[in-house]
Design a protein that fits this description.
The chain folds into two domains: 43 residues, no CATH class; 68 residues, no CATH class. The chain is mainly α. Keywords: Membrane, Transmembrane, Transmembrane helix.
């Protein structure tokens, strides 16, 4: 019975999020039309000022490097300290990708896109 409840609640959450997204988008567009404003901001432009792919690739590569570095640091902590090995690996594999993403935030600010 529990898997059925979980599946139904997951579907209801996804449906609710999509429904609210499309409903508010429709209301925003109708409000713009009602006030005689330009609704071209909702159109997808291919000539964006800055492409998003370099930022995505930079952050993805930093996450993967952070996970690898986390395993390395976790192995070093497990070998040279008396800490619990399970806790060390989990902590390092969460901390280092976060630190690398923080570094990625500053690197993307410096990119000339």
């Amino acid at each position: 019975m529990e898997p059925v409840i979980i599946c139904i609640s997951l579907f209801a959450c996804i449906f609710g999020i999509c429904f609210l997204f499309f409903q508010t988008r429709n209301k925003e567009r109708l409000a713009l039309i009602e006030h005689d404003k330009d609704a071209s901001l909702f159109k997808f432009r291919k000539d964006r000022a800055s492409p998003v792919w370099p930022v995505i690739l930079l952050n993805l590569s930093l996450i993967l490097m952070g996970v690898g570095f986390g395993f390395l640091i976790g192995n070093l902590f497990e070998t040279y300290t008396i800490l619990n090995s399970d806790l060390v690996y989990v902590a390092c594999c969460f901390f280092t990708p976060g630190a690398f993403l923080f570094l990625g935030f500053y690197l993307t600010r410096k990119l000339k896109l």
